[in-house]
Amino acid sequence: MSILSTKAKREAGRHLTGYLFISPWLVGFLALSLWPILQSLYLSFTDYSLLEAPRWIGSANYKDIVHDPLFYKSLTVTLTFVFASVPLKLAFSLLVAMLLNRSIRGINLYRTAFYFPSLIGGSIAVSVLWRNMFGMDGYINKILSIFGIEGTGWISSPDTALGTLVLLNVWQFGSTMVIFLAGLKQIPKELYESSSVDGAGVFRKFFSITLPMLSPVLFFNLILGIIGSFQMFTSAFIITKGGPANETYTYALFLYEKAFSQFQMGYASALAWILLVIIALFTLLNFAASKYWVFYETEAR
Amino acid sequence: MELSRSRSRSVLIHLLMIAASIVMLYPVFWWVGASLKDASEMSSAAIWPKKPVWDNFVKGWNFSKEYTFARFFGNTLLMEAWNVIGAVISSSLVAFGFSRIKFALSKFWFAVLLMTMMLPGQVTLIPQYIMYNNLGFVNSYVPLVLPHFLGGGAFFVFLVCQFIRGIPRELDEAAKIDGTSTFGLYYRIILPLILPALVNVAIFTFIWSWDDFMSQMLYLNSIDKYTVGLALRMFIDQFDVQWGQLLAMSLLSVMPSALIFLFAQRYFVEGIATTGLKG
Amino acid sequence: MRKPKGALAILSTVITMSLLVTACGGAKSSNSSDPKSSGSAGTADTAKLNIMWWGSQERHDATAQALDLYTKNNAGITFSPQYTDWDGYWKKLPTLAASKSMPDVFQMDAAYIQEYVSRGLLEDLTAIDLGGTIDQGVIDKSKIDGKLYGVPLSYNGTGFVYNKPELEAAGMTLPKKDWTWDEFFAFAEEGRQKLPAGKYAIGDYTTVWNWYQDYQMAYGKGPMFQDGTKLNIDKDLWFTFQKKYEDFRARDIIPKAAVSAATVENDPKADPLLSGLTMTRGVAVGAVSALEKMMPGKLEVVNNPVGPNGGGWAQSTMYWVVSKDSEHKEAAAKFLKWIVSDPEAGKILKTTRGIPISSTIFDSIKSELSEGELLGIEMYNMAADKAMPFAPAPPGWADFVKTYSDTMTEVMFKKKTLDEAFDVIMKKGEDTQARLAK
After folding, report:
1. How does pLDDT run across C352-411, given as a tens digit for each residue?
2. Which residue among A72, A153, C332, C438 is least crowded, i.e. fewest CB within 10 A of its CB?
3. Cα separation of C197 and C188, whole Å?
């Protein structure tokens, strides 16, 4: 009896400690985020221009969305973007992270240089910069012309615009790369040393040590890459405005225009909740799959 | 023979690194050149202006009659200091709770945490504004800083979680046998080991809140509270943009982030040193 | 239920929790929006006016100075100003409207005013006596349904700027005041004969709905939207117009689609006029001086092409308005009268909001105008003569405008024929009409 109660007490103590640790987030969620989230759910069932009070219209927004060609167009654009840019960016940033994970002189400067493109992503100056690079008489076309290739307006031609945005996104690999870098730092050096003794080659080292050890971080980058790409907004907004002919009209841009340019916040909220469900499905799928390839120290053995 | 081969190899590596860096830094070269251009030269393709207008920096810095950019940099840096402190402390606490303690509903709350990331922020922006407005926090830094103290965003919690999960549990067990409390475990064992991750949290918090123009625009009204991001918009009129000054000041505005990144690197190195010891 | 279990669980907790939070939210009083404006409501003698505008730093500095002057002359009135750039402004204003905390006085643009008026957010300002300051004709043009909701601030209008030295060098006929649409199209064709390859007399405005509207109105078929609820496109006229552009595109009289799509107005690098791609550019009066700064001494102006019914528009597009929720309407109205009519204020504000609407004020600052501003005035004067009414897209049609522009982009890139495009546009118009009729 007394043993049971101390066990129960210890159990209760553990729950309490857990909640204490997550309390900063929990308090913030309940006090600051929950209400706006619920509001947006409620608004998705209303006609809400922002300028006047929301009016309940039931599921009309959702029904309209199903018939809206722009919904399908923007979803297609977004899915294409997700499937093209997430794997490319992961592979590229992992490669760069491994290249930069060495202690040579000046490595800090090199890393900063490599990170720089990601640093300027949000600056208002970038739109001019990108036009300078990808425009008709831009930098890229000048390089191509050396090889006798006639370039096009990369971001203004419907056939190349989305591809260009994907490349731009991959080029801004900095954050993903830095997270990999921190992950690589966490792998104990002894593992590599002992496998070198065993005569393992670069590839075997990568697949038998680096990849498994890095898998939690890789998983993180994958999930966040998916979430981020589904919500891709800034470069489509700044550089192409969704054009030409909606070829880069991402879902988030569609949502944003509905909310702030067309005074249809209710519709936008419905779009947001649909996106949430889509992303949640993708995430769930990945969490389920992660059992087979992500290795946590906590769960190993 | 061995030595000289390794030396030539390291020279080769440096050459490659420098070449790649130049490609990556092309925007900076362009940017510096463009920030020194006169309005009439802006459309020319040349990277460097015929006659550099250093005045863009002087005029840009003193663009407002009331304040110079020093004020706006001061405002932003102060806000950033709080943001970074808040994000690092709270995300590490919360992540520790989620990844090292088994408590009731922990999986549920973690799912909620992830979910908050999946809802596009554009649709919660307005309800959030109404809420802060009712609380009387508009035109203060509270709406910008407070969230960082309360979990620091799901992104960071999840990030730190993944790093903590990569740390062997045996360490915890050993510490527990030594009589370390749960907080002691967090503070003395885990925290030093996840330093690289926390450096990431700090860097990203800094950079992302620097760029978060939308919230700053909504919540800050009076110019004495303006951030650099808001002040930069003052160069943009409906039809008329002061390109030279805008590019000059926005070039300055990315410098703090670049410097933070450069200096925070040191802690990546310290990270391994500690890991090496414990491992 | 095919939703994941987690999401369902989340939803149910979320709903239970909402009760708690709603209770909290409801307890907050709604008028704490502005902590500073407590007490002293209603009187015109003491008030703290919240005031908001968009614009450049020059405008901000001048306005702040004018506000100080007003406070000096009217001891009880102080201001709490806020300002931002154009893009930010149109995000912030709806947010403030949503949170019922709009400023007492704020700047408004003709493109948006109807959205705000139709939702009853703006105070009727017809009672302000503006006689002697603002021309009655200008006031009448600014009225909506017979009421004045915004005090007009400055003159605006449409027209073209052209690159005079380059046109002369090529031996082209220069555009002249009141050129007809036929002359305009002939000018474009002449450009192909006389201008070097890769340079064009005019740009491609196929995607701009109101460019076509201008044509339709010039030929007496009225604006594209009638009573704010009906789409009005004259099929024959539309096809005549669009076929002209299609033919021009095929004959390289206007730039290729990819080239046109790459242009960005007012961008130092991608603006078609600045980059030398086109010799002309359609422009509003307010934008002329910015272009002149980038191409000093090279630009001349002309009004829009005209048809039997006129061409282009010329009127004020910028207003000061008063919020319906303001607690200081009287003080606000008094201040507005002052800011548009007081000579001293006029001297401080100069042309920071365009050509001042009051002729007395305009005369007093005439000598200080820049080259670009004079050019803008010249354009306004040309446009005013044959101007047609200003016809922006009414509330609820933003969606349609986007469809129009997207569909016509597809036409440019030959992804749709004109017939297909016409059907898409008309279909969207019908849908919008049906939605608005609800």
Report:
1. 888 888 888 988 888 888 888 899 999 999 999 999 999 989 988 988 999 999 999 999
2. C438
3. 14
Cβ atoms of residues C115 and C278 within 8 Å: no
CA angle C199, C205, C210 (to 5 degrees): 155
List, as ranges, residues 118-177 from B with C-beta within 8 Å of A. Answer: 118-120, 122-128, 131, 146-147, 149-152, 155, 157-159, 162-163, 165-169
Homologous superfamily, domain C158-313+394-437: Periplasmic binding protein-like II (3.40.190.10)
pLDDT at site B269? 55
pLDDT of residue C22 exceeding 60: no
**Alpha-carbon torsion, ordered B30, B36, B37, B42, to 10 deg:** 30
Q: What is the mean pLDDT of chain C?
A: 86
Domains and CATH numbers, chain A: 67-300 (1.10.3720.10)
CA distance B46 to C19: 62
C21-156+315-384 adopts what CATH topology? D-Maltodextrin-Binding Protein; domain 2 (3.40.190)
Neighbours of chain C (3+ CB pairs under 8 A): A, B
Q: How far apart are CA B134 and CA C50, in angstroms?
A: 17
Q: Which domains does chain B have, with CATH numbers?
A: 2-54 (no CATH), 61-273 (1.10.3720.10)
Separation between Cα atoms, residue B234 and residue B247, nearest integer Å = 12
C-beta atoms of A50 and C4 within 8 A: no
Strand partners, C77: C47
Interface of C with B in 22-81 (CB under 8 A): 25, 28, 30, 32-33, 35, 54-57, 59-61, 64, 80-81
The beta-strand segments (E) located in chain A are: 46-47, 55-56
Under 8 Å between Cβ of C285 and C354: yes
Quote the ipTM score. 0.88
Task: Give me the amino acid identity at A92.
Answer: F
Closest of C373, C212, C390, C179 to residue C285, by C-alpha: C373
All residues of chain B having their beta carbon less than 8 Å from the beta carbon of residue A220 are: 158-159, 162
Q: Is B7 on the interface with A (CB under 8 A)?
A: no
